[in-house]
Amino acid sequence: MSTRAMSPVLVGRSDELRRLRDALAAAPGAVLVGGEAGLGKTRLIREFAGCVGDRARVLVGGCLELGSDGLPFAPFTTVLRDLVRDIGIDGVAELVPRGDTGALARLLPEFGEPERDAASGEERARLFGLVLTLLERLAERRPIVLVIEDAHWADRSTRDLLAFLTRNLGDAPVLIVVTYRTDELHRGHPLRTLLAGLERMERVRRLEPARLSRTETAALVTALLGDEPPTGLVERIVERSEGNPLFIEALLDDDGTLASELPESLRDLLLAGVQRLPEETQDVLRDASGGGTRIEHALLTAVSGLDDAALTRTLRPAVAANILVVDGDGYAFRHALIREAVHDDLLPGEHTRLHSRYAEALENDPGLVPDGRLWVELSHHWKAAHNAVWALVASWRAAAYARKALAYAECLTMLSRVIELWERVPDASERIGADLERVLEKAARTADLAGEYKRGIRLASAALSEIGEAGAVGDDPDVRERRAELLALRGRMRYQMARPGFIEDVRAAAEELPPDRRTVLRARVLSTLATYIRFTTNIAEARAAAAESYAIARELADPVAESHALCTLFCTDIDYTDGSMLAEIADSAARSGDHGALMRHAVIRSHFLEGAGLHAEAAEVARLGKETASRFGLARTDGTFLCINEAEPLVSLGRWDEALAVMEQALAQEPSVTTRTSLLVMSGEIALFRGEPEIARERLARAGRVTNEQTAWLKTQDYFSTQRLRARLALADGDPAAALEAVLRVVERPGLPDDARFTWPVLKLGVTACAEIGPAADADLERIAERAAALPCLGRLQEVHRLAYDAELGLARGAVDRAAWDGVAAAWERIGNPFERAAALVRAAEAALAAGDHDAASVRLGTAADLARGLRAEPLAGLVADLLRRTRSPRNGTAPLGLTPREFEVLRLVAEGRSNRDIAAALFISAKTASVHVSNILGKLDVASRGEAAATAHRLSLFREAESAS
Hints:
Blueprint: H1 14-25, E1 29-35, H2 41-52, E2 57-62, H3 74-93, H4 121-138, E3 144-149, H5 156-168, E4 174-181, H6 190-199, E5 204-207, H7 214-225, H8 233-241, H9 245-251, H10 264-275, H11 279-289, E6 294-296, H12 297-304, H13 308-320, E7 324-327, E8 330-333, H14 336-344, H15 348-364, H16 374-384, H17 388-404, H18 408-421, H19 428-432, H20 436-450, H21 453-467, H22 477-496, H23 502-511, H24 520-533, H25 539-556, H26 559-571, H27 581-592, H28 595-611, H29 615-631, H30 635-652, H31 656-667, H32 673-689, H33 693-706, H34 716-732, H35 736-747, H36 755-773, H37 778-789, H38 796-812, H39 818-831, H40 834-850, H41 854-871, H42 874-886, H43 901-911, H44 916-923, H45 927-941, H46 946-955, H47 960-965
Helix pairs in contact: 1-2, 4-5, 5-6, 7-8, 8-9, 10-14, 11-13, 11-14, 15-16, 16-17, 17-18, 18-20, 20-21, 20-22, 21-22, 22-23, 22-24, 23-24, 24-25, 24-26, 25-26, 26-27, 26-28, 27-28, 28-29, 28-30, 29-30, 30-31, 30-32, 31-32, 32-33, 32-34, 33-34, 34-35, 34-36, 35-36, 36-37, 36-38, 38-39, 39-40, ...
């Protein structure tokens, strides 16, 4: 049984918290918070109380699960008792008229004994009025939040007092929050009447927290585990919990795995409503539980043996109790775990007989389920009924149907069931017309398409074992081709998992295919081999393999192989100044009609366009490709990779919110680790740019776990981008040495594919780090410069990066060149990158300030401020604001007290308490020059110290504008 604690963070409730805060700001009023058990209503209220506790008094009372037989006014008794503990009986007496607390004795014995055992109507009205007065007087000190929890258990007196308070609140800032379970409100529940009446009031709001989305569920699981969840765990939890936070927490065992059985406490909660139903209704619910979360009325009729009218009559109490809900022409359990709990309560014999009845009903009348579900349903029911033969046959048929529908994940599930049942069916091959080797091969290929690479690697290895080792299969060309295909497949999946051995697998596949046997398979294997050799520095070998692949494909006139070979040839050494080959690739992919070829073209084209600085076109190509991937059933594989190619140009264009939405969509599908790295790095950079370094650090840590820095192979895009984020974070933390360490990892690895595209931005950060370190980093600065000198500039985007690098290098070497930075800013504007443009404008403004041209600096900083504000780039905006403050000094060449404009600027910094070193850094002068200016100022002001100079400046209000701005 799980004993996991509550999540340390509240997930998916930011909107609800905001609405509660808004309601408090608009008090008086009330908020009715309703939802099924486990949605986190209590946790939400606790979080809200913590948020407003410093400015409001929060009073909380809960109703008891005793109903009308329990204590009257139970939540108000709790509230009053807590209030007495806080301010004492005398403190309460001070708040009520004439200090008469006698009426409160009916709520709390500390106030004495009631005058009578039974309260008259007049005494009841007096009590209600006294509670209202008490709340309003308390609210004179600070706002009051009165929380009444679990109102579905409220007694009549509590409901009446709640209604009175809500309807009679005056102008005092009192917010009443009422929580209740919607699943407990059967049609005759007395709380329904109260809620209906309160909702008609203008100042009463309703709040119904929803179940968590898939993304929110993943965030909650991550918080509970304290680490990224294993692949597939979130999907299984989503399926069973349906986004209910309590169920999510209960289903996670302490070891981070999914609980195989429901915890007893959760089972009791789920079955409580079922056990209150008539026995005949419970019997039919047990029948319905075998059919899944949703079941058609006609199918349940056939399985239960009841006629239509009898079934309707028997199920009516379950619908009224909100255990079942009517769903079209069938029924659905309100929650999947209710069905699971009911189903788990079946005895072994009942379980087998029930599923046999389902299978037999479907065999007799396939029309009882919608088209497409028959074979999956039969597979499930025959397996649950322990009939291995027919479960295997149905699973094989279901797999074929799913593959035809491009439902690869479902196809893999069915093929895995065939493999699971194989040993239990002696004549399995005859039953389905395929041997185990073929089933394993089919399952491995399907796993690749479904993005289930870990399972796919195991399946491919099992298939290779069934076929036999290379030396044992002889020279049978068909067997060797099958081995080659499986080896290449396993290599592809190992690559997606960033596991070692992927190149070795594909090399072995090529060796299984003699060079003199020029086949389509050899062309495809060589194309794959060339693709992966690209991730080493052996570009020449990659180009040779791609050329041979293309030659074979052309010779055999195979459009699919030709299209893949063309893609590989193009990628062996991309030149972003020449995209002419893309038209040929597009034509070849279209002629092939192959899903994989069409997807590769979308990936390559969008990658090229972004690398060429055509951001908007790149984003659009990737978006359309992503939609095509979804139509092909490849959303989790090619679709998530295209999310990288869509998000990257959106980041460049400054459309950061759109980029984040694209990346969250991709991450929610649990893509391969190689895809995940780029998504994490890009989202981490946006977080850093927006002043959220902790999020950036978390994303970097996750990306670092994916990128194994000790392997011989490193994918340029993943590895270099990870080092870029690491360097940015270190610079933001004021640790240039750590930033330089990250940059040098890139400097030390020349010759990788796409080197220039991903190296230029990193080198610029390295120059910045060296400048901050000072002379101690001169040797490393030269290493960076040597690396840059050997780098080509392929396309206008790389040209802009080189311009920015040159300007930064000049600054590091002491050349403050405003024109250079103006050129960089203009180039970024032409490319369409607002963030980089703003950063360049800041550098240009700093250069203008160093030259004493405050007007020029002000113009540039004004533009940079607008850009930073539009991006919500808080750190950059803060830097701009700080520089703008430095420009607020005389422009006419004169200053008060006989000071020069420069001395006046120095005095402003002295008044701020800056040291000579700080002044030198701020004004781009040497510390010695700053010292001379300070000495001149002391003489002209006739003061003996910096402190006296600062006091004089403040006394004369010389810098009033700057003081008011800060």
